[in-house]
Amino acid sequence: MTTISKAYKFRIYPNKTQQHQLYVEFAASKVVYNYFLNKSIELYNSEKKSSNYFDWAKELTELKKKEEYTWLQQASNGCLQQSLKDLDVAYKNFFRNIKKGVKPGFPNFKKFNSSIRYSNVSCKYSKENHKIQLSKCGWINVADYKTPFGKLMNMTISKTKSGKWFVAICVEQELKKYVNESVSEVGIDVGIKSFLVDSNGDKIDNPNFLKRQDRKIKRLQRQLSKKKIGSNNCKKAKLKLAKEHEKIASQRTNFLHQNSTKLVKENKLIAIEDLNISGMVKNHRLAKSIMDVSWSEFFRMLTYKGERYDCEIKKIGRFEPTSKKCNNCGYIKLDMTLNERSWICPQCNSILDRDINAAKNILSLALDRKEVV
Ligand SMILES: [Zn+2]
Hints:
Helices cover 43% and strands 21% of the residues. It has 373 residues and is α+β, with helices and mostly antiparallel strands. The protein has a domain at 3-174.
């Protein structure tokens, strides 16, 4: 039986006392993480020995008895244990890299925690009263609650810059086999003008909230820059800006989820280009930089949703001449500029829309590859 992990994210409303407890736990889990990371690095440097979760967990009990660390007792065991488990994962990766011959770099120390995870021993959720429970906080109210199904693995509590609290409830679920009866195969080309164009000629426009928000963010940034650093007005302006950034992020995520789900449900195969996002030109325009993030996030969604919805995702190399090649006869137009939105093929006289033609080429390339294999 195949299982997948799935996270359910909800906004939560901890009261003042609970918030105080959470701050203590944010701090405690950071201190514990860094303390044992430091010890492990020292042990490795002096004796080339590794240590792991079990060594640390045992030592943690002793550590809490030391005078300067007794405050750690205020934090729940679950978050401290999870912090050690996270360190264990990071530390194992570090050793795996050494074995692979990759230049080793120790895991990083935590500077600031804006989220903490609780292992399933110290958290639960209630089906009846729409709340979650953390061992030292008690019951916390949850907004728009839907009961997660599956085996509870852990919960992550986070606080955004604008002061909103969230929980991500991570569960392990049985993978239900979705029968995809579609036979359609589609190639997609992402771009600046339209968010994407597919080989059938369908376009998804960039959501217009991007441009609107671009202007709003710039205005808020200007307002912030005029405020005296550290003043109350400066704090208010920062909060406003943080809220706006979070709003864009959530609208963007919704947009990407809707469109990726639709595509994998409607198609049996989707061909995409392997974008080198990190290598893309750094651009200071907000709308553009959001688009860069969006494409990589969109392709990530397509890939994992493709598995769930029985839709194959095929990537083609990013050096293929997808816009310059006529999809009808294979003629390659070398002198094409970025502004040319459509062109007539000198060889076969087809009238080609730049983006649709590219999407068709992406599909053909992906299908060719299938025949070779
Ligand atoms: Zn042609």
